[in-house]
Amino acid sequence: MVTVGAVTIDGVQRKRANRLLLAARRSRARARLLSRLVLLGPPGAGKGTQAEVLERKFGICHLSTGEILRDVAAGNGLPQTSALKSALRYMRRGELVPDATILELVRERRDCLHAHQGFALDGFPRTLPQARALNRLLLQEGLTLDAALEFSLPMEQVIKRLSGRRICPNGHGVYHLKARPPKVDEQCDRCGAKLVRREDDRPEVVRARMNAYEKSTRPLIAFYKEQGLLITIKAQGKPNEVFTRTVNALKRNL
Ligand code: AP5
Q: Is the shortest distance between the CB of 180 and ligand 1 below 6 Å?
């Protein structure tokens, strides 16, 4: 029991009060941030890592089209329709999945776009037709995009990040052998499963993904620049350093 002024509160009440205070603080912090976001950048730049922290710290809804497809591949997500089976074949080769399939997956998750705390679209859009379709979808839903964040990273660092990446096979997280190692060697901190290498992180597939990025996704940088939405963030340094840079870039000029 603790007495605050004339009021006595027990542990349960104190925990609840702390929770409410934390939620109110987060909500105030979020209100000061641009929070309807598209995340751009080459494979391995750290988009997923940053989106995960934005979700954890500010409750921003993280929508990763790559993650949805990996869930389908692992049998944890949607049933494998013929369109999704074909999508997985593109993915294994490091090529982009057809726009129509991706747009369907995003439309099915449009609730995320309405999340009170905002959204971070990670790996979508990836082509100009996808970007135009997103603009139309947002218009239909009465929403606007606040910013497109481009995470820029020199190629040699991209390769280091991809070659050291390991993931939990049960979808419990993304690790890096040096930069973000698990507590126990090669084991997921949350479920203890043996970490695995992503199928598309093999060098020959990485080359195809880089080509797809250069050819189809890089033009989105100019697309969002023209709309006055582009913010470029240097993705070098530790994940928490990049996060600080990201949050600073997202602060609204009130
Ligand atoms: P997707 O899953 O979106 O892959 P990607 O864009 O290639 O991006 P990655 O997940 O590889 O990298 P990331 O930038 O998220 O980096 P991460 O945070 O993991 O797509 C996969 C495939 O799905 C595509 O190839 C395509 O086939 C298909 N697809 C998906 N969306 C599509 C779409 N819209 N249209 C068509 N096809 C689509 O970090 C990488 C590593 O670095 C990790 O190990 C991490 O721990 C580490 N790391 C992160 N930050 C740092 C740091 N600051 N310092 C050191 N290490 C760090």
A: yes
Structure tokens at 66: 């790559």
Neighbours of 55 (CB within 10 A): 19
Domain annotation for the chain: domains and CATH numbers = 34-248 (3.40.50.300)
Cα gap 175→164, rounded to integer Å = 8
pTM of the model: 0.89
3-state helix, strand, coil in the chain (%, to 5): 50, 15, 30
d(CA 96, CA 118): 26
Has 183 been annotated as catalytic?
A: no
Residue 176, strand partner residues: 165, 180
Check pocket membership of 46 for ligand 1, CB cut-off 6 A.
Answer: yes
What are 228-240's pLDDT values in tens digits?
A: 999 999 999 999 9
- Residue 69 CA: nearest ligand 1 atom is 23
Q: How far does CA 207 lie from the centroid of its chain?
A: 22
Q: How do residues 8-29 score in pLDDT, each as one tens digit?
A: 667 777 788 778 777 766 665 6
Choose the residue to mutate in 47, 166, 220 for probing ligand 1, maximizing ligand atoms within 8 Å of C-beta. Answer: 47
